[in-house]
Design a protein that fits this description.
Four copies of one chain form a homotetramer. Chain A is of the alpha/beta class. Chain A has a single domain (3-181), classed as Flavodoxin domain (Rossmann fold), CATH 3.40.50. The first copy, chain A, is built from six helices and eight strands. In chain A, the strands form two sheets. In chain A, strands 1, 2, 3, 4, 5 and 8 form a six-stranded parallel β-sheet that branches. In chain A, strands 6-7 form a two-stranded antiparallel sheet. In chain A, β6 (121-126) and β7 form a beta hairpin. The radius of gyration of chain A is 15 Å and the shape is globular. Chain A starts with a strand and ends with a helix. Chains in contact: A-B, A-C, A-D, B-C, B-D, C-D. The A-C interface holds A 79-80, 83-84, 86, 105, 108-109, 112-123, 132-133, 160, 163-165, 167, 169, 172, 175, 179 and C 79-80, 83-84, 86, 105, 108-109, 112-123, 132-133, 160, 163-165, 167, 169, 172, 175, 179.
Chain lengths: 182, 182, 182, 182
């Protein structure tokens, strides 16, 4: 079974809320899933996983310092040795135009640095809502579309991990069908 | 008098609509202002200006190829000779999460490359709407907040250009007062 | 057999030289490989491939306008329909500090936008030479290290494509052994 | 007199070495200058300054978690109230292609978020060495060119701060003359 990990930081609870919806999306698939606040996440969690979603509040345009410290310090001993996992990002900012996409890119940058293969999602999950570089919300995910971008991210992470790492190519068809329904 | 230039590309008319609101914001200040579609913009327009706002549809996550060509080809002879102007960005994407912030960053990157000093705006212009890396909209600027982010970008560009390039420090007070009203 | 495509733009011949070394790296593996100047590349080439390396001179900090136009125009009809390919980047700038890493990130951004899974390489190929976000050179790839970063990029692209898309997990061992030799 | 601040983090001493050369460049101009390791820097230092250079080792592709924490926590109370300062970046990575430019961009992103006007430098300071998005080195700044990119960054920061914030337009001529000598 493929192993999926969600690591998130949260100050106001908004990103934690997003993380729960990402978890919901992942859980629709036959995978093992762990969800950890960054304070509780350990290097071994990353070693365990095949696919990883990292979420952070948008803090000064980038992932929070705690998320940064996790990659700078906690995971450092394994740098260069954990290539080939699948990674993606999510972030909640104070408002639209507040940097949530750029914060997602900062997370993807860290994952690329660790040798992950990273992705965004082209799907629109409603009028004017998509997740091209990861799931983003302005504040708490309150609308159906904002919840759905998080769920979709989790689903896609499970699909790619199953199809590419676990070799279950039938999930490419599941993915394709989901996209056609949009 | 300070000279302000707005260059934009537009396919559906959405970014053109943004450009008009940026123009409206600039026009509230005692400056000369030009607005040009990228097809009509010339290197001399950039030489003329003290402050520049560049707008583009979010195309595949970055500024459009026409905006890119303008900086790659049309302006190239002046690379390295036009330092010290003030620059900013705006972009309209198909949806939230569709890359408009990242497209703004691609524009700021090009402006930094040409020696501009670039800025974003910390102001919130309404609940959940700001313009930290430039003005962004999802589709046409239809809500009051989406129009206001464009206007605010134009105002701030005029304020910085007047205060820093033209030496009219009183506009720092105008800026400060505007921020306190938020 | 897995299909690998290299698309590049080149003005001075420097990026073309890089492309040849990327090709050399890819060719060490049992894959089909095509190499195309962006002027000659067509949407069908991308449809054909399982793995793609895109190279560009660093122009004003980003990929060239011709590379941008390829993704904006030539490939646009297939946006949203070609998910799940593997992608990477390479770029040559006028000097160190001239933007080649940022140009690579602009290419990765476009590939992410099209639904690719993108990667960088953690390997050092010599003292002070690596390719964390894609292969980069300052000018023509003249030193052994600069040639080697290009070759390594091609090798890694072939390895990931074989292992993840083609399901030949034995190439994960090849990759691992190569990293241990560094 | 204009006030210039240099804040840096350093683990191996490489970025500290860069910071000293940035300091040397700033010191050639009639400004007050402070240099602080991030552990010792306080919000009041930033309030005091008119121009700021931030340096960091390239850690996992971005500024270090300590630099991030400084902007996330130490300076947070002043967010939105310190607009209009001049900012720039420098970073040392383990090798070329190791992310030093991207780390500079992460610093510029944080400065833009705080309302700074940020810049890079178009000058080449030697064959194949420039600092378009801030000063970068691979490891310790050992060659003359790597020292010179740091010095040039400090000089340019002093020049822009004197000319734009302090209103001493004669430094635009100093800058122009320096560029012509290149």
């Amino acid at each position: 079974m493929a192993n999926i990990l969600i690591i998130y930081d949260s100050q106001t609870g908004n990103t934690e809320e997003m993380a729960k919806y990402v978890y919901e999306g992942v859980s629709r698939y036959p995978v093992n899933v762990r969800i950890k606040h960054v304070d509780d996440a350990r290097a071994e969690d990353v070693l365990w996983c095949d696919g990883l979603a990292v979420g952070s509040p948008t803090n000064i345009g980038l992932a929070s310092w705690k998320i940064k410290r996790f990659f700078d310090v906690e995971l450092l001993d394994y740098w260069g040795d954990i290539e080939g996992k699948i990674g993606c990002a999510f972030s909640s900012s104070g408002g639209w135009g507040g940097g949530n996409e750029i914060a997602c890119m900062s997370i993807l940058t860290m994952l690329i640095n660790y040798g992950f293969l990273v992705f965004g999602v082209t799907d629109y999950v409603g009028k004017r809502f998509t997740l091209h570089y990861g799931a983003v919300t302005a504040g708490k995910p309150e609308t159906e579309e904002e919840r759905e971008v998080c769920i979709r991210l989790g689903e896609r992470l499970a699909q790619w991990t199953l199809a590419l790492i676990d070799g279950k190519k039938e999930y490419l068809e599941v993915l394709k069908k989901q996209k056609e329904e949009k």
